[in-house]
Write a structure and sequence with these properties.
single chain, six-stranded antiparallel β-sheet, five-stranded antiparallel β-sheet
């Protein structure tokens, strides 16, 4: 619990820092943020992996939902993980981080935060990736790096892939982020894949 609170406070601090340096983006777009050394240092104190995105939308978009989906060998399993919905106004930031839990190294703590119009909403959830542990497991992460990416329904922002047999892993292609269903074969060989998705709501 202490780590969750500390992580949430750091994310809120990061959001306040990034808000001061926000650059005007094209309307109805979302882009991965190129972090400064200072911002990377803040996030690395509590997280193993971190993804940060700035969005800029028209005034008729009122809410933003962000969640994580879990896939096993290319098939969607379970409900949405760490689902959060927050009010937004024109622009803001999404932050997704993962970190090991202090009591169980087989678990990861997923953190999602949405910052917009001077307020921050955050959600935390502990996720067991493999019940039999992470020994021998390899992983690779990636993100949708398209600059000024037009927002779309259930847009995919990031991925974390896990494989047990230790064989080579390749980053997911840009085509995968644009159309998951059409390129689902890219994750069929991976034991577990987590996808970060977002939906902007009018």
């Amino acid at each position: 619990m202490r780590k969750i609170i500390f992580t949430t406070i750091l994310i809120m601090l990061f959001c306040s820092l990034s808000a001061c340096t926000k650059i005007q983006k094209s309307n109805n777009t979302i882009s991965e943020v190129k972090l400064t050394k200072r911002e990377n240092a803040i996030l690395s104190t509590t997280s193993d992996k971190s993804f940060v995105y700035d969005f800029n939308v028209a005034s008729n978009y009122k809410e933003l939902s962000v969640w994580i989906e879990k896939y096993e060998f290319g098939k969607l399993v379970g409900d949405k993980i760490n689902h959060i919905t927050s009010g937004i106004k024109e622009d803001g930031t999404i932050i997704f981080t993962t970190s090991k839990t202090p009591t169980n190294q087989n678990q990861s703590l997923f953190n999602i935060s949405i910052n917009s119009d001077g307020s921050t909403s955050a959600s935390n959830q502990v996720e067991t990736i493999f019940k039999d542990g992470l020994e021998g497991v390899t992983s690779i992460s990636g993100s949708n790096q398209t600059e000024n990416n037009p927002i779309q329904h259930n847009i995919v922002l990031a991925s974390i892939c896990y494989k047990k047999d230790g064989s080579r892993m390749d980053s997911l292609t840009d085509d995968f982020y644009r159309d998951v269903n059409k390129h689902i074969d890219e994750i069929r060989d991976y034991d577990v894949v987590y996808l970060l998705r977002a939906d902007f709501i009018k």
